[in-house]
Amino acid sequence: MTGTPSATVNGVAVPVPSDGRRLVHWLREDLGLTGTKHPCGAGHCGGCSVLVDGHPALACTTMAATLGDTEITTIEGLAARGDALLRCFVEKGAVQCGMCTPGMVVAARAFLNATYGARRTTATVREALAGNVCRCTGYTQIVRAVLAAGADDHAENPCEN
After folding, report:
1. What does the pLDDT read at residue 1?
2. CATH of the domain at 53
3. What keywords sit in the KW lines (predicted)?
4. What CATH number does residue 134 fall under?
5. Which residues of 14-33 are buried (b: 16+ CB within 10 A; e: fewer)?
C-alpha cells in the first residue's frame, strides 16, 4: 500500500486530491490560494497560469490528481518570496483590473528564469507572454515591467530601469 501522493505548493507538502478536480479549483477552494484566477475556464487566456516544476501550466485544464511529486508555485508563492517582478508590474503600471495579472506574472517569471543572463527584447517578452490575454493594458506596460525586472538579474531594485 502506498501513501497518498502529494505536491509541494508554495513550499508546503500537500496531499493531491484523487478526484476529478482541476488544479484551479483545488488551489482556490481547498487551499485558499485565490490569487490564481479562473477567467475563461477553457485554457484560452492564461489568467490561471501557475508554475509546475518551474514551467507555466494552465490550472483550469490541468487535473490536480496528476500532480503528485511536483512543485507548484502560485502568485502567492512568488509574493511570499518577495519577487521583484511583482513590484515592477505595479511600478510600471502593468496592473489594471487584475484578472490577468497573476497569470502574466507567473508566465513572465518562467520566461525570466529560462533566459537568466540572456538579452531580452520586446519581441522575446511578447512571444513568452503570447498565451496570456489582457483586455486592459494593451501589453506595453506589461512588457516594460518584464524588461525592467529582467534588465539586471542581480539588481536589488530592477524596477528602476
Report:
1. 40
2. 3.10.20.30
3. 2Fe-2S, Iron, Iron-sulfur, Metal-binding, Oxidoreductase
4. 1.10.150.120
5. bebbeeebbbbbbbbeebeb
